[in-house]
Amino acid sequence: MLFLVAALLLMGIMLGTAAHLPVPVTLVAAAVIAGWLLVFFLRERRHHDEVTSR
């Protein structure tokens, strides 16, 4: 849960500074955050599947 809060905080910071950054930098930062959230989602889903299969 702490990771999700950190991701939302980083997203809020990036959205706040997005108006001052070039578009390519903003897109790269958005892709990094999206990738991090995707990895988090997949790890949580795998963990949930392992727990329910026992």
List keywords for this structure.
54 residues; mainly alpha; 85% helix; elongated
Strand content: under 5%
Biggest pleated-sheet summary? none
Question: Per the principal axes of the C-alpha atoms, what is the gross shape?
Answer: elongated
Number of structural units classed as domains: 1
Number of helices: 2
Poorly predicted segments? none
Q: What is the number of strand segments?
A: 0
Question: How does this structure look, described?
Answer:
The chain crosses the membrane at residues 28-44. This is Small hydrophobic membrane protein. Keywords: Membrane, Transmembrane, Transmembrane helix. It comes from Streptomyces angustmyceticus. This protein has 54 residues and is an all-alpha fold. It has one domain. It is 85% helix and 0% strand. The chain has 2 helices and no strands. The radius of gyration is 15 Å and the shape is elongated. It starts with a helix and ends with a helix. 0% of the residues are buried. The model has no long low-confidence stretch (mean pLDDT 84).
What's the SSE blueprint?
Blueprint: H1 2-17, H2 23-52
Transmembrane segments: 28-44
Keywords: Membrane, Transmembrane, Transmembrane helix
Organism: Streptomyces angustmyceticus
Short description:
The chain has helices at 2-17, 23-52. With 54 residues, it is an all-alpha fold.
